[in-house]
Amino acid sequence: MLLRGRIAGAAEVPRELVLSLPVLTATGRQEIRLENYRGIQEYTQELIRVNTRSGQICLTGKRLAIEYYTNTEMKVTGLISSIEYK
Amino acid sequence: MFWSIVRYVKGYLLIRVEGYSPERFLNACSHRGIDLWGLRSVGGAYEMYMTVRDFRRIRALSRKTGTKVRVRRRYGLPFFLHRYRKRKMFFAGALLAAVLVYVLSLFIWEIDIRGNSRRTDETLLSFLRSADVHCGMSAGSVDCEEIARDLRAAYSDLVWVSASVQGTKLVIQVKENSHLSAELPADEGDEGGTDLTAREDCTIVSMVTRKGTPLVREGARVKKGDILVSGRVDLKNDAGEVTGYRYCQAQADITGEYQIAYEDTMSREYEVRSYEYDRGSIRLQEEFFLQAGDWTLTFGGLKNSYREYEYYVEASRLSLGGIISLPVFFGKRTAVPCRVSTESYTDGELQRSLSSRFERACQDMEKKGLEITENDVKIYTEQNAACARGTLTVRGPVEGEAPTQILPEPSAAGQTEREDQTNGNE
Question: Are A71 and B30 within 8 A, CB to CB?
Answer without folding.
Answer: yes
